[in-house]
Amino acid sequence: MLNSEKRSLIRFLVIYLGSTFLLFSLASWTFYISSKHHLYDKQREQLEYQAENIKSKLRHLHTTFDKTLYYPQIKTFNSAIFDLDKKYIFGSFKEKPYLNKMGHYSNNNHMYYISKLEPYYLGAAYLMVSIPIDKKPIVSLQRNIIWFMLGAGIIFSILGYFLGKLFIAPMRDSINKMNNFIQDTTHELNTPISTILANIELIEAYGMYEKSEELKRIEIASKTLSRIYEDLTYLNLNHEYYREIEEINISKMIEERVVYFSAMAQNRGLNILLELLPNKTLNIDRNDAVRLIDNLLSNAIKYNKTKGNLTVKLTDTSLSVIDTGIGIAKKDLNDILKRFKRANKSEGGFGIGLDIINQVVNSYAFHLDITSKLHVGTKVEITW
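Request: output the structure for the sequence above.
Response:
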């Protein structure tokens, strides 16, 4: 799967699963709150029932003439009676409770119900009934919701993955068609480009080249086509590309590639400055080194100003190419390395140069840094 397909699939899954999770979370939370209130209501009903039960027993004790009075107690409930001034009279609580407010209320562990006694039975004006909150149904409800969310998450993740594959299928077909087109096009371009360049070299050998401006323009166009051909071939076959790492004199190679691009630079009136560490070597595949340098120089020439400066610096730890060109807007710097991304549409190109540079850099664990200021210039630095 290509990086663009992975990014599209990940974005789809994030949006799809995120919205699904949010919807199910809201639904589950609503269900949980509703069920929790229902469970509490059932326990409140039990409190009210037991309060009425105790009231009836107090009424019986109040009307009886038996001198032996027993306060009614229920094992699963605690209760207490208070006088008209809300002072504690008697009860089954281990610690003396205080009468706070009427009706239902609860804390973390217990639920309370307070009601008036009318008429006053045995001097009592208020009755408090309490029961420990039964949290087992709540815990069971929470567990069931969690299992439901996990099960739904797995099912919708699998479903989302297959939907995502269907979602990116048209893009994959388009990419395959484009890759096939690039492959066919590069195959057809190879022979005529090679023929043109070979004939230019033959003309140069006979000394006719310097007298003809037309031939110079043909050379520039042919080398441009040749570079595009090499880049398209690299993009199409990079996954099958075998790299032969060897020690390359990178200083000498830069000088050779500058000579190769000299006609293009002269055509724009550019002043090329070389600040190269002599005989610097680098362990890299030769074709990768050529591709890296060519794209750096090509971009610096293409996006430079007429009669501007192009500086190439090579140190023991880095290679920098600096131009005085149109620059890159700050908002485009984050996306400039993406394939087919062009910050400036006025110049030609496919938007693949920096992508190729980035691929080569990543292949050798180098570091790529791009700094630019609009209408001032751009510096591309590769460190190793």
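Helices lie at 3-63, 136-205, 213-237, 250-260, 262-267, 286-302, 353-363.
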